[in-house]
Predict the 3D structure of the following.
Amino acid sequence: MWEEANGQNGTGGLLMLYANNLYNNGEISAKGMNGGIARAEGGSSGGGSINIFANIIKERGNIDANGGTTGGKGGTGSITINELGSVLNYEEKIIQIPLNTVYTIDQNKLSYIKLNEIQTEDLSIGTISYETSDNAIAIVDGNGNITGTNLGKTKVKITDLTNGHSTYIIVEVVNQPARAQIKLGTDFTVTLKENGTVWTFGKNDKGQLGSGTKDNSNKPIQVLEEETKIELGNIKDIDARENQVIAVSNTGEVYTWGLLTRHYTENQVDKQTEEIKVYASKVNELQNIIRVSTYKGNFFAIDDNGKVFVWGKDYKQITKLNIEEPILEVSGDILLGKNGLVYKLDNLNEHIKYLNSIVSISRGEDHYTFQTVEGRVYTLRKK
């Protein structure tokens, strides 16, 4: 009679990985140790267990948790990947709706983004529901129709009920007339009243007050239009930096004043000179502009299609920036896209890494500030 001589069963391995970014270029393995080999048959090798905790995984190698087969048949291992998975994304992060008008959320702009490249599951958009955080600002129905009911901002939550994922967009209900603004230049202040008139006070040696003179003023005075010499009105957006000011009207017309740069050619040589404009001077080449800004002697204007035009110290003529993404806002040398991404003026082909779902930007003297759709604020210091 033969005695049983089976090898001893092997033990499964246990491997736990914690990483922010995991790059797997070889093999991740938790194979169990092989059982012994005897006269009858080898013992079973244990199945391994792998637990991975990572935000982003780039996989070029193999992940194996099954038991070896040198002895008996290896046990089946388990692999658990604990990561953020796919996130629901809507292409537009900020939606501007004129008061009492309707915007319809386009489900074709909804998609899932994989945060983990090892992930094999592809999620499809399921049944969508909508919810606004403030019905006093905007209401939304079951078909994604958002109606602006009062001026202000609110969040709209978009939920995929089938897959259990949600995302948010910011809805800003705006009125065609101006909202009150205050901008600061060098030793002077510009204010925009809700009635569309522009008022300035402070230093005026470069005509930055737009009053028709270079006299300083310690009390607010109205800006005058160059051609008519009457008060500038119907303005909806302004900006000021250093000694120059820019404004845009409700009809899309752009005005600048203060210390401006003029380019010219002399003896086939490109030159530039500074000139002072003491009145608000209309920029006739531009139309359908909705937002304006200025920075270090340059002016920026955004039209109703999100195209950006720039001119001034560093540009010989009005130039349309070569960027496909529609732009919502320009502050200094950074641009905010409608997709919630931020771009640098000197590299429009790539957005700034790690910044997404941004709804507001600001450029300071030596730093940048960004606000996300969730209300978080981040600051980056310029090197």
About this structure: Residues 1-9, 18-26, 32-45, 53-60 have pLDDT under 50 and may be disordered. The two ends are 83 Å apart (CA to CA).
